[in-house]
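Reply to dn_fold:

You asked what the input looked like. This is it:
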Amino acid sequence: MHALNKNRPLRRIMLASAATVSGIVMLLALKPHTAPTVITDSAAPAPSAAASSSPGASSGSGSSGSSGKSGSSSTGTKTVTGDTVQTRWGPVQVKVTIKNGKITDVTALQYPSDNPRDQQINDYALPQLRSEALAAQSASIDTVSGATYTSQGYQQSLQSALDSAGL
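and this is what came back:
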């Protein structure tokens, strides 16, 4: 005899109700991604200090650990590390080199790279964001399609670095 026999409507109702309740319970048990956290200005010096103490993040005798700045003022060249911006997929942080008031280099120190998809997206997006920043000479750059969160984090970190440099 078949479980959904037409002669037993109560059995069909019970089975349908149990399936509906099970589906709702499973749906409610799903955990959504955590909301992105925003670093406020009061917490910003700590990531910059940590980034400036890492290899390659600072150079010369004029470095200041709390601001992320380094370089020498006599040559007009300075390197500034931007704030670490927490995005949905991970932190983004850039380092900017400024010579005589012009942005000469932008390097991404941190970016999402936890899985192969993140790496693929950022291998494509970061060079585009760098060239946009060098061409615009500001943080007013276009968002790279498919890398929206990374682009927004890149812009925010770049703006904080430019603000620290006084540009």
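Residues 41-74 have pLDDT under 50 and may be disordered.
Hope that clears it up.
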